[in-house]
Structure formats: structure tokens, C-alpha cells
Amino acid sequence: MNYDFDRIIDRSNSNSAKWDRYRGRDILPMWVADSDFAVLPEIQQALHRRAEHPVFGYTETPTHLIELLVERMRRLYHWNIEPEWLLPLPGIVGSLYLACRATGNPGERVYLPSVIYGPFTKAPGMNSMINQPIPMCIRDERMVIDMDWLEQQPPHPGQLLMFCNPQNPGGSVYRENELRRLAEIVRQQELVLCSDEIHCDLILDRDRRHIPVASLDPDIEQRSITLMAPSKTFNVPGLGCAFAIIPDRVLRSRMKTNPYIVPHVNIMGFAAAEAAYEFGDEWNRQQCTYLAATRDYLVDAINRIPGLNLGPIEATYLAWIDVSALRLDDPMTFFENAGVGMSPGRDFGDPGHMRLNFGCPRSRVEQAVERIAKAVADLG
Ligand SMILES: Cc1ncc(COP(=O)(O)O)c(C=O)c1O
Question: What is the C-alpha separation between 153 and 149, in angstroms, rounded?
């Protein structure tokens, strides 16, 4: 079956955060990371089926979903996990805070990449902990954490290191040798690693593969919290379903959610996750092919606009565009005035960039490029 990613779906009046921000204004919403693609039909069917049952009580992780996840980790990532390592969670952002709380105390430091998805930088402070940014570096045009810097740091037993693979923003996919080096640093410095892998199934190139860092060896496995979710890949972030994989029993019990501060996973989120992981492989293969073609178009088109620069994007539907050469006081307002609503780079630690979400029909991306090109040309 061929899925239609070109289809334009009217999301106005669907209570969409992405679309409601610019309601009534001619601004293309290309900011928050949900896509404008219709979900896999089996997801919608599973939700319909569940909605037909008239009672929506508290729930537990479906056994079938656990089986699917164990099988998926083995099949896609050659990672043999035990069912009890899985911890269901209503979202990843809250889990970043939980990871800080589970591993450290107020006043202690947390390593995190200096350019990163914004909520990472808020998580340590929520537990009165202190951000310790890891500088980023560019390797073969890919933004990755600077392991040379990290390697030189003294051991901090028990200190948390959070990172994101694939990297948001930037879309870099960490290579096996990089992950092995990171795992070795974590081991030598006796750190705990929290790896946000929410974008792991949005790898755009066939010759790349995602490697969960925890899958590399039993030592890093025991020191790690891996966060994953169907939300980005299968476009169900509004359904609130994610999970952590935590092999170490003590760490897992510390991460266990407290029902007074973290709600249960939504019963519909579980239904969607089950359908996504059971039936979604071919849909996602086609989605990645579609996104890769959009990416090729976008990288070429943006780099033709004088003053803009866009490096390779290996994963995600998020383009990290360098606009620093334009010397704009307020890049977000400038591009909104041009009719394109992107995420400002300052939210990720770099005000010289803008993040454009290209998870939408290509015609909309083309329209956005036209608007951006015109606005930049008008600058003179
Ligand atoms: C790296 C990363 N982590 C977490 C999230 C959000 O996860 P959740 O909606 O499950 O809180 C996003 C959303 O864009 C993300 O890019």
C-alpha cells in the first residue's frame, strides 16, 4: 500500500498547538515537532475500537505492547532487553526531570549538550541542580558533543549526563565509534547516562542506522536510562505515551513514577503505540523516504539563498538553519513577518539559527522556501 504524504489536511479547529499559534494570520506553522501527516490507518482504527468500549478507567501497560517493544529492540537494534526494564511514561520531557531527580541531589551538576532541545536545559534546575554544558563540535559537517572536552573532565561518580541521539536540533546520528567512546567516558568517569532517543526511527538515509548507546555493552547498559516513544515517528504526541528502558534495578526504582506528580499513561496512547509498533514499519519506511526527498530539496534550496546555510540532516524532520550571516536582531519575528513560523535558535542555545519543521506536504515546504527567499532578498 502507498501512503499519501502529499495530502493537505486542514488542522484548523482541531485544537492543534502548532496551528492555533498563528490562527487567522498568513504564517505557515513550521515550529513545534509534530508533523502534518495523517497517522497510519491502523492507529486510527485501534483508537476507534478502544473508544467503542464505554469505560475509560485506569490502565496498565498492555502485555502485547511489552512483547512488541522487546521484539522491536531485538529486531531493529540487536538489543536484548528484559520486559521488566520497561517503564511506561506519559512523555519524555517530564522524564528528563525525573532522570535528574533519580540520579542527583540539589546543588549537583548535570552534563548536557550546549545546543539541545530546550526542555533539557530546564530539567536540572527543576531539581535545584546545575547545568554543566558540554561544548558541541562539528565533525564532517555534523553537530555532535565534544568528546575531547568531555574526556578531560575529572570523574564525578554518579553524575548524570543527558544527551540526545539523533540530535535535536541538527539531526546528527551518532556513529558506533562515537557512542563507544562516549560509553567509555561514562564508564571511566562513573557517570549515569540518560539518552533521549525519541527520534530514533526517523533516520532518513538507508545506509545509516540508529544504535541505542545502552545496547553497546552490559556496563553502559547498567549505567543508562534510554528514553523512546512512538510520538515523533508515528505522529501521536498528543496521545501522551512514552517509555524508558532502565536495566539497573536500583536506578529503575528511583525513576519509578510517583503518581502524585506523574500521571498514568493515557489508555488511548497505549492503543496507538501498540498499533504503531505492530503495523507501522512499512508506513514509516515510506515516511522516511518522503522526508529524505524533502530534505534533499530543502538543503539545496536553502543553501541557494545568500546568507543562509543548512548542513546535512541525517534524521528527524527538523532543519537547523544558520541565519547568523543575516545579522538580524530578532530572527523569529523577521521570518514570521515573511510568513514562516519557525522555532527560534535561542530556545536551543544558539540564537544564530532557526529550526524549521519540514514534517508536512512538500508543497508547503516549497511555499516556505519561496517566502524565506523573498524576505532575505528584500533585505538587500
Ligand atoms: C529530543 C526531544 N525530546 C523530547 C521531546 C518531547 O517529548 P514529549 O512530547 O514526549 O514530552 C521532543 C519533542 O520535540 C524532542 O525533540
Answer: 7
